[in-house]
Structures are given as structure tokens and as C-alpha cells.
Amino acid sequence: MNIKKPKALVIGGCGGLGTEVCRTLGRKGFDIAFTYHSCQKKADDLVSEFKDQRITATAFHMDLDDLEEVKLTIRQAHRTLETLDALVISSGLATGRNAVEQVPQYLTITVRDFDRLMNINVRGVFFACQKAARIMTEAGAGRIVIVGSIDGVKSVPAPVDYACSKGALWGMTQALSKELGDSNILVNMVAPGILEGGVAKLLSEDLMGEYLKHSSLRRTGKFSEVANVIAFLAGPWNTYVTGQAVILDGGL
User: Fold this and answer.
1) pLDDT above 90 for 220
2) Alpha carbons 151 and 160: distance in angstroms, whole number
3) Across the strands, what pairs with 34?
4) Nearest to 190 by CA among 73, 110, 90
5) pLDDT of 97-107, one tens digit each?
6) Domain with 148 in it
7) Full-prediction pTM beyond 0.85?
8) DSSP-based three-state secondary structure for 9
């Protein structure tokens, strides 16, 4: 890895967590490329913010459901950054439906809902990692950090399709860490609980109350708390942590 000036691509850099990840990596000395899907104005503002702070950042449009665009965007980001030391995937869907006011119940989930969710949350992530891994293998090192969820590693109330997709990411993380270890590519997943400004807005008061009651800290998490862990796992200072799911749920 390029120790002096590491380079990272953050997929989903305009989301609440993704934006904080970009900022945290920038403060730690990374040059950054990040993707956005439907928030070009926010992406432009973020690039301007980084420019004011003398942080090198470039934004690319990308749809995780379009595999050709996924491959093209990673290739373009690699060309722009000149190397790719870290890939962070902080993009995905909470539900396969286009618009919801609450999480869907299992008996109401359709094939279309399920396929859309899995295509973005699993298939898109799988092939994004594959493209980045080819680049990193040639370079002889790299870091991949996937944002999962406690729903994929713990038995907690969750939409079943969403839990399926996040469980798949945990299996992917473990298998990738084994296959890519010989190339000094470290692969990890972070598994956040409920975060302020995140999926909490889709949850009922009863479910939120149950979560807080069982949390050791009696509160939801902050994007910055998760971003700091991601930055460690993605950075050159991480030399031995791989194949792990770092659970960040306040002690459920």
C-alpha cells in the first residue's frame, strides 16, 4: 500500500455514513474518490468542501444495480487515483420497495422487492469487490471494508429480505478474506446497529424503545463512531485484522 498518501474509493459517499467515512478518511490523509447515485448536488458540495480543506476528492455517478457501470466506475476511479489502496462499500437499500414509510413485513415482500434488494445489496457488492480485488492483487496489497448490519450477524427484529442480504455480506467477507489473504488484501465488515439519521426513521416507536432498552449504552450510534472504525480497517495501519465483523451496536 502507498503509506505516504493512501487512496480510497468509497461507494455510497453521499449517504449519511458514507459522507462521514469520506470526511474521516480525508482527515487521515487519504486521497478520495467516491460514488453517488441520485444526489449530484450533494456530491458537488462535498467535493467543494474537501477542496477548501485541501483534500483531493473526485465524485463519480454509479448505480450498484448496473454491473457494467460498476466496473467502469471502479476503473475510472483507479485511473484518477493512480492506485487503489482501499475500497469501502457503504451503499445499499433498506428495502426493495421504491417508497416506504415503515419496514415491510415478511408476508408482504414480493419477488420484485426481494430481487431488487439482493441485486444491489449483494450482487453489486460482490462484483465491485471483484473488480477492486483484481486491481489490488496486481498491486500486491489492499483493504476492503463492507458496511453490513447487525441484522446479518445477530438475531434481531429486521425485515427478512434485508437480513438475508446482510447475512450474505458476512459470508462474502469471510470467504474473501481467505481467498485474498495471500495477496495481502485484508477484508472486513462493520456491522452497525441503529444510527442517528439512518434507518431509525423507518422504525416504529415500539421497536426503537426495545432497541434502546437492550442497548448497554441506552442510545443509538453516530455516523462518526462507525466511520472511525472503518478508517482504521481501511488504512495502512491495519496490518493484521481480516475476516472480521466488527459489531457497533452499543452493546445489545
Assistant:
1) yes
2) 9
3) 10, 59
4) 90
5) 654 455 678 89
6) 7-247
7) yes
8) strand
Spell out where the chain has E strands: 7-11, 31-36, 57-61, 86-89, 142-147, 185-192, 245-248
Domain contains 188: yes
Domain membership of residue 109 (yes or no) is yes
In whole angstroms, what is the distance from residue 21 CA to residue 227 CA? Answer: 5
In a domain, 12, yes or no: yes
Distance, CA of 75 to CA of 44 (rounded, Å): 21
Amino acid letter, 27: R
Contact of 52 with 26, CB cutoff 8 Å? no
Residue from 24, 27, 22, 28 nearest 46 by CA:
22
* C-alpha triplet 141, 134, 51: angle, nearest 5°: 70
Count of domains observed in the chain:
1
The domain that holds 138 is classified in CATH as 3.40.50.720
In a domain, 164, yes or no: yes
CA distance 41 to 59: 11
Please tell me the distance from the alpha carbon of residue 187 to that of residue 158, in angstroms, as a whole number: 25
Sign of CA dihedral 72, 26, 189, 148: negative
Q: Which three cell numbers stand for residue 16?
A: 449519511
Per residue in 37-62, pLDDT (tens digit) is: 989 999 999 999 999 999 999 999 99
What CA–CA distances, in Å, run from 244 to 21, 62, 147, 152, 240? 19, 27, 12, 13, 11
